[in-house]
Amino acid sequence: MDEHRRLAKEVELAATPEQVWQAISTPEGMSLWFVPHEHTDGEIEADFGGGNSQAGRVLEREPGRRVVYGAPGPDGEPPMTIEFLVEGREGGTTVLRLVQSGFFGGDDWEDEYDGFGKGWDMFLHNLAGYFRYFAGLPVTNVVATGFTTLPGETVWARLTGRLGGDPALGERVRLTPEGLEPIEGVVDLRDRLLLGIRTEHGFSRFMADDLHHMVSTTHYFYGVTVDRESRTAAWQSWIDRLTGNEKP
Questions:
Q1: Do residues 143 and 187 share a domain?
Q2: Cβ–Cβ contacts within 10 Å for residue 181, how many?
Q3: What is the pLDDT of residues 128-146, one digit of tens each?
Q4: Residue 121 and residue 205 in contact, taking contact as beta carbons nearer than 8 Å
Q5: Do 144 and 190 sit in the same domain of this protein?
Q6: How far apart are CA 139 and CA 32, in angstroms?
Q7: Cβ(186)–Cβ(197) under 8 Å?
Q8: For 94-116, what is each residue's pLDDT tens digit?
Q9: Last residue of a domain, one of 120, 136, 152
Q10: Within this chain, do residues 147 and 219 fall inside the same structural domain, yes or no?
Q11: Domain count along the chain
Q12: Residues 216 and 149 reside in one and the same domain
């Protein structure tokens, strides 16, 4: 198989091309639906929680239509790139196409590809949900990530147990994570190791990743005041207790 592979996604959004362009071409826009982004020394840095970040650059840009981001690959290899294409449709909607390329071969290729695909499905679902329920509102992001040697199913059982429920898609819930405010809303995302809740003011996402031995939670608060620093610390502590990595 060719070692340089491409992953493609497409979503139709209830938004104008200008709105979608802002959401995929600026750090503030990317933070609305992906993870926190900010400019750092001429690069754009994405914060995946728990001290994990990824820096990249804009490689190509056609204002209003197309932007390509690139992150360094392994030594001597070309970068991984993420291309966004914006296309307006009649009726006021916009199609966003995403193409990720620069994957490399290996025994875990299929799992890696599948993991990225599921991740983009979740984030693009966030973007569609933002335009549907929270369009125009600013966001405060809270992200926490931990690593563990435990199997994904074991971690997931712990996670749902500590949330106080393992609900189905469409179910209304009130989750009660210890030491944090309850999460009330409707389950809008569900998979084997994925749980997403849409609340009155945003989204809460929980995900376990077998391939990278990782568990994470991402929260989006739209149009409300949230102390990001203290809330992030609280969720990171919750994740650390879950994975057994809590600092003394």
A1: yes
A2: 10
A3: 999 999 999 999 999 999 9
A4: no
A5: yes
A6: 6
A7: yes
A8: 999 999 987 655 555 566 667 77
A9: 136
A10: yes
A11: 2
A12: yes
pLDDT of residue 108: 58
Please indicate, yes or no, whether residues 109 and 232 belong to a single structural domain of this protein: no
Residue 220's domain spans which residues? 138-248
Nearest-5° angle of CA 108, CA 206, CA 58?
65
pLDDT at 1: 39
- CATH number, residue 130: 3.30.530.20
Closest CA to 63 of 8, 26, 36, 97: 26
pLDDT at residue 171 tops 50: yes
Task: Please check whether residue 159 is in contact with residue 165, taking contact to mean a CB–CB distance below 8 angstroms.
Answer: no
Amino acid at 86: V
Rounded Cα distance between 117 and 119, Å, is 5
* Residues 147 and 92 grouped into a single domain: no
Strand positions, DSSP E, the chain:
6-13, 37-40, 43-47, 53-62, 66-71, 80-88, 94-101, 139-147, 172-175, 183-191, 194-199, 202-209, 214-222
pTM to 2 decimals? Answer: 0.90
The DSSP secondary-structure symbol of 4 reads S
- Distance separating alpha carbons of residues 88 and 27, to the nearest angstrom: 22
